[in-house]
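Let's practice the habit of predicting before peeking. Look at the sequence and jot down your guess about where helices and strands might fall. Then scroll down.
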Amino acid sequence: MLTIVWGVGGVVALLLQALVRLGPIAAEALGARLTLLQVAFAVVWVAFMAHAEGYRGFHLRFSPRVVARAHHLARHPRPLWVVFAPLFCMSLFGASRRGVWVARCVLAGVFALVLVVRALPQPWRGLVDAGVVVGLGIGLASLLYYTAMAWRGRPSPVDPDLS
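Done guessing? Here is the structure:
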């Protein structure tokens, strides 16, 4: 039980930290006087991120896998893996070769995109961040949904992808 809370809770904390950090930047941009091009970009970008990052990335793949891996680790604890449970739940180790590779590439890609987006001037940075905030918000809700379903006895619908 504590392993699940630590594994999933660590991932939730990472998502919350990003939302708290990016939310005000997005709100500043959305509260500014925007051109028609900026409004059109914001609408399309937010819709795209809601679908691509929020639904397809988080809801269908990442969130159910995090929960499945947390439950697996709780049933089959390894001391070092339990210590690093959030990283295990994110498939950064203890997954198939492909799963670890994909997780690490996605993480590296996110870091690279963060560096690029930070260099954008407002309101463009905030508009990009608005889409990210929507995607992360859907991801957080999805993670909590799958966690609640697992607590109710409905296992995650995806394979935990173990090594």
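How did you do? The helical segments are 2-30, 36-75, 79-83, 85-89, 97-118, 124-151.
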